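Q: What structure does this chain adopt?
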Amino acid sequence: MIVAKNYAYMDRVCGFDVHKHSVFMCILRENGEKTEEVSGTLASEL
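A:
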């Protein structure tokens, strides 16, 4: 985390979108690089 003039900026952020049959994950890095992944909700699919 970068702190400047009473503001905090994150190096990367992550989001999850959970549905009944799937989980969507996205990581966004400071340089604009994005990682996305979708998986099922059963233990064998994770």
